């Protein structure tokens, strides 16, 4: 076959085209590498965020400062937050006043003493009487009309303030994620609470984005079988319902319902925390310290220096 013409042009042209396409792709990749990355999405400025009003009742006991320090340091991680700390006392105590002043948080310090008839008697278990009722209601009064603040911010939110109200006891454990879940609440938002009601967690059951029931073992027929740590309320809703308050005479386990029944129908609750499948708050309890050695030393006149704040 020597001497016959070779038809080599088509394969050569195809190979040349492949090389050209590769060179073009390499040039495009190099240009992409030289191009500056897109600016990341900027979070809203703190001033544009609704304010979270965290209401915490507290009372004097050995672990009070430890509990409040832990809670305050969690709250300090949350932008646009206002702490309403309400003492069960006739007036402000130096311990709580000093802690608030050192916290770096925007706060309002309130105080109201629980009436004697509502106080736990010696030896009574904690569940016999609802606790913190007067203190939470005092915070609601301040949000609606101000007055009575013994420290910190004295004036209530101005009209039109965007905000949400959350009742955070001083002995629970909170993920900072929880506060961003509740921030944009329109009415009443809900989520599960861990280690409560004798269960691993207690909370709403959600189907197609709506609350259809509650996972609870104790008195499941309560109007709102939720824990105090399991809901938040839009400030505008609370202000629009001035008679909505906690009822100190509510039956055991119905304290939350005594407030929520004035505000929302269960079917209109707003599920948060991935449709109530994530636990972001835990109903923890600090063990009561045993003070036998302290008492013994005190009897001998060698107790710990009372001037050292614990």
UniProtKB/TrEMBL annotation:
It is a single-pass type II membrane protein. It is an enzyme of class 2 (transferase). It catalyses: 3-O-(beta-D-galactosyl-(1->3)-beta-D-galactosyl-(1->4)-beta-D-xylosyl)-L-seryl-[protein] + UDP-alpha-D-glucuronate = 3-O-(beta-D-GlcA-(1->3)-beta-D-Gal-(1->3)-beta-D-Gal-(1->4)-beta-D-Xyl)-L-seryl-[protein] + UDP + H(+). The active site is at residue 256. Its main location: Golgi. It is found in: Golgi apparatus membrane; Membrane. The lineage of its organism: Eukaryota, Metazoa, Chordata, Craniata, Vertebrata. The keyword Membrane applies. InterPro entries: Glyco_trans_43 (IPR005027), Nucleotide-diphossugar_trans (IPR029044). Homodimer; disulfide-linked. Interacts with PXYLP1; the interaction increases the 2-phosphoxylose phosphatase activity of PXYLP1 during completion of linkage region formation in a B3GAT3-mediated manner. This is Galactosylgalactosylxylosylprotein 3-beta-glucuronosyltransferase.
């Amino acid at each position: 076959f020597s001497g016959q013409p070779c038809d080599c042009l088509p394969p050569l042209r195809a190979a040349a085209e492949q090389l050209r396409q590769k060179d073009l792709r390499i040039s495009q990749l190099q240009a992409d590498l030289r191009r500056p990355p897109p600016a990341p999405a900027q979070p809203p400025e703190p001033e544009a965020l609704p304010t979270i009003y965290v209401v915490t009742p507290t009372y004097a006991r050995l672990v009070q400062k430890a509990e409040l320090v832990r809670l305050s340091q969690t709250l300090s991680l949350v932008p646009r937050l206002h702490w309403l700390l309400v003492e069960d006392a006739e007036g402000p105590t130096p311990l709580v006043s000093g802690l608030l002043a050192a916290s770096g948080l925007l706060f309002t310090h309130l105080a109201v003493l629980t009436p004697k008839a509502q106080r736990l008697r010696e030896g009574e278990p904690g569940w016999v009487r609802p606790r913190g009722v007067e203190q939470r209601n005092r915070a609601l009064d301040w949000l609606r009309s101000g007055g009575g603040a013994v420290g910190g911010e004295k004036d209530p939110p101005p009209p039109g303030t965007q905000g949400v109200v959350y009742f955070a006891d001083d002995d629970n454990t909170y993920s900072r994620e929880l506060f961003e879940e509740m921030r944009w609440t329109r009415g009443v938002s809900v989520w599960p609470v861990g280690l409560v009601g004798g269960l691993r967690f207690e909370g709403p059951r959600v189907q197609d984005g709506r609350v259809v029931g509650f996972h609870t073992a104790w008195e499941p027929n309560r109007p709102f079988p939720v824990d105090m740590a399991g809901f938040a309320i839009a400030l505008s809703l609370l202000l629009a319902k001035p008679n909505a308050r906690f009822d100190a005479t509510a039956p055991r386990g119905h304290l939350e319902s005594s407030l929520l029944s004035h505000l929302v129908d269960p079917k209109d609750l707003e599920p948060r925390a991935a449709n109530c499948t994530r636990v972001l708050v835990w109903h923890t309890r600090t063990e009561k310290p045993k003070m036998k050695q302290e008492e013994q030393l005190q009897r001998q006149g060698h107790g710990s220096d009372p001037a050292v704040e614990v």
